[in-house]
Structure formats: C-alpha cells, structure tokens
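Handout for the seminar on molecular recognition.
Each group receives one record of this type.
Step one: identify the two inputs.
Step two: read the structure output and locate the region that could contact coenzyme A.
Step three: write two sentences on what you found, then compare them with the reference statements printed after the record.
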Amino acid sequence: MSREPGPAPDAVNEAVLETKRLTLSFGNDRDAEMLFPYVHGETGRQVTDFLLWDGPDTVEDIAKFFRLHTTGTFVPHGFHWLLRDRHGELTGARGTPMGSIGMNQRGPQGRCSVGYWLAPPFWKKGIMTEGLTEVLRHGFEQLGVVKFEAEVFVDNGASAALLERIGFKREGTIRRAQQKRGRWVDEHLYGLVQTDLSPP
Ligand SMILES: CC(C)(COP(=O)(O)OP(=O)(O)OC[C@H]1O[C@@H](n2cnc3c(N)ncnc32)[C@H](O)[C@@H]1OP(=O)(O)O)[C@@H](O)C(=O)NCCC(=O)NCCS
C-alpha cells in the first residue's frame, strides 16, 4: 500500500534538528519564562502585531503550549520547534531559546502551513532564514510534505522578504483575510514546493 504524503495525523514530533548556528527542539517551562517578555503585552507588540496570535497573558499559557507539543499528535496540534543558540555565540549561553516555528496540516494530508516568530534582539542576522530552511528541508525529505504555505499580512515586509529569499512564490493576495485587534487585514499567500527551496 502506498504511504500517504506528509506527517501521519497521529505522529508525535520527536525530531531535533541542527544547523550551523541553531538547534531546533521542543520547549519546556524554563523556555516559556525566557520567551514570555518578547511576546507579552505592549513590549511584545513588535512581534505579535504581525501574528494572528495576540500573545500570552501568562507564562503558563506558553508553557502549556510547549507541553502539548511534546505529547500531542500532528493532527490537530501540529509540530513545533524552538530555535536555540547552538553554540552560545548569539546569546552568550548555549541552548538559549530565541523564537519559534510551527507546522500544521492545511487541507489534504501533505499540504502544510508554517508560522514563525523571532525575538527582536535577534532579527536581521539570517537566523529565521537558517531555521525555517531546515524545518522545510526536514518536512520535504523526512516527513514527505508536498507543499508548504504561509500567510503574511501585506505590511509585513520582513516576513515577505524572508519567504522570497527561501524560495516561496507569492500565489495571491486575500483581501480582508483576517481580523487583527479589531482591524481587517489583507494577506499575501505564499507557497513552496520542494524544487523551489533555495539551498541553505
Ligand atoms: C519575520 C522574522 C521572523 C524575520 O526573521 P529574521 O531572522 O530577522 O530574518 P532574516 O534575518 O533571516 O532575514 C530574511 C530576509 O528578510 C530581510 N528582512 C529582515 N528584517 C526585515 C525588515 N524589518 N524589513 C525588510 N526586510 C527585512 C532580510 O534583509 C533578509 O533578506 P535578504 O537576505 O534579502 O537581505 C522576524 O522579523 C519576526 O519575528 N517578525 C515578527 C513576527 C512575524 O512577522 N512572523 C511572521 C508572520 S507571517
């Protein structure tokens, strides 16, 4: 019997990934404490203004999310990784969490969406390019993903530049796609198949 493409709906993510500067792995309670200030309240807005998620109210909100992703299955929870400083050269301490990447099923098995954010002190150093490229490579090569998609608010130049650099193609613009804090926003839809992926 031929295998269905993409992660099995009942799969639990056990993959720890490594790149030149990063380790990508699951989050724990300590990581939740460290990441909370970057996504909470007014100070977190630099990050959460561009996400559907409005950020956590408490550290426990993030800790719960991390716990769910160490035991939860791909459907309905998706897979999730933290981007960690592999050698301690970016943050001063090996393993420090800097941001997050999630992958979820979208439509038929084998078609997935990705979402991501990075704490502002680490922006514009190519960190998300490095981390996301590795997650996409893992998705295609190890999990049998056929297509990745990402939705980007039209005023999010950083995310659009990131995706285009990696090889994503803009497939369209969805007007009045979402409501964010009471405001309607338009979104660009980006898509990537394996042959689009730029080498790291
Ligand atoms: C989007 C985000 C993850 C980018 O992370 P990053 O590690 O800074 O990105 P990189 O350094 O790998 O940069 C990738 C590309 O984007 C460009 N870029 C980065 N920040 C930018 C900005 N503020 N404006 C325009 N371009 C920007 C980089 O120059 C690079 O392009 P280049 O190689 O052609 O020069 C980060 O800005 C972020 O977390 N933003 C808030 C949350 C968010 O928007 N998430 C995505 C929702 S769709």
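Reference statements: The mean pLDDT is 95. The pocket of coenzyme A is lined by residues 47, 50-51, 116-118, 123-129, 150, 152, 156-159, 161-162, 165 (CB under 6 Å).
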